[in-house]
Amino acid sequence: MALGTATPPYEPRFDAGRICLDLLATMHPAERLDGVEALCAWIGGVGLVPEGTALGQADASWLVGFRELRANIGQLVRNPHVPDTPSYESALLRVNEVAQAPPPVLCAVRRGDGRLTRELTHPPSCAGLLALVARDAVELLTDPVARAAVRECEGDNCPLVYLDTSRGRRRRWCSSEVCGNRERVARHRRRAALARA
User: In sequence order, which residues have a C-beta less than 8 Å from that of residue 69 and are 6 or more positions away?
Assistant: First the structure.
C-alpha cells in the first residue's frame, strides 16, 4: 500500500458492540485479516482512525501485532472463569503492556466548507493503534455491567462474541439473519421430522 493511499472499505459481518470484540470477529468464518490491506481496511472500518487516513506505513509486523493481540483478548474474554491459569495471566500481562503505548492524537481541522473534521496530528503507529484496542479490552473486562453483557453466539459452530445491548438482554445469536435463521430452519426440520414419524 503506497504512502498516502486511503484504505479500502471494510465490511464487517456484524457489529460486536466493542472494538476489541470486533477484532475477535475477524477470525470467523475464516481469517479476515489475511493481509496488510485487509488489516488497514479493518482499522479504518471500525473507526480506529478518521475516515480517509492513509496507513501507508503498515507492514507485515502490524498484521502480527494485531493477530497476537486478538489471541490475547480472546483468551481473556472467552475464559473469564479460569483467571488463575498461566495462559490467562500471560494474556492479561500482554494486553496491559500493549495498552501502555501512547494512542494516536486527534485534532479538529476546518474543512473548506467551514465544518470541523477529525484528523490525526501524526501518522498512526502500530503500537498506538494496538493500544486503542487493548484499552477497549481493559475497559470491557473491568466494567462489571459491560462484562456481564458479553455473550457468545448460540449458533452451531459459531465462536463470535458480542455485547448484548438488547432489551432484556435476550439476544442469542451474533446475527438473527445468519445464525438465528439457521437455528429456526433446524427447529422447523426437527418439528417436520417428528410430525412425519
Answer: 23, 94, 95, 98, 130, 133, 134
Q: Is 92 exposed, middle or buried (0-12, 13-18, 19+ CB in 10 A)?
A: middle
Kindly tell me the sign of the dihedral angle through the C-alpha atoms of 92, 57, 105, 118: negative
For residue 55, what are the CA distances in angstroms to 8, 62, 65, 163, 193?
Answer: 11, 11, 15, 29, 54
> Is CATH 3.40.190.10 correct for 19-150?
no
Number of H helices, E strands in the chain: 7, 4
**Minimal CA–CA distance to 78: which of 156, 131, 24?**
24
- Domain borders along the chain are 19-150
Cell of 70: 486478538
Q: What is the DSSP string of 150-162?
A: EEE--STT---EE
Beta strands in 41-128 (DSSP E): 106-110, 116-120
The values of phi and psi at residue 114, to 5°, are 95, -15
Residue 91 has pLDDT above 90, yes or no: yes
CA torsion sign for 120, 65, 21, 91 is: negative
Mind listing the pLDDT tens digit for each residue in 145-176? 999 999 998 888 888 899 998 888 888 878 76
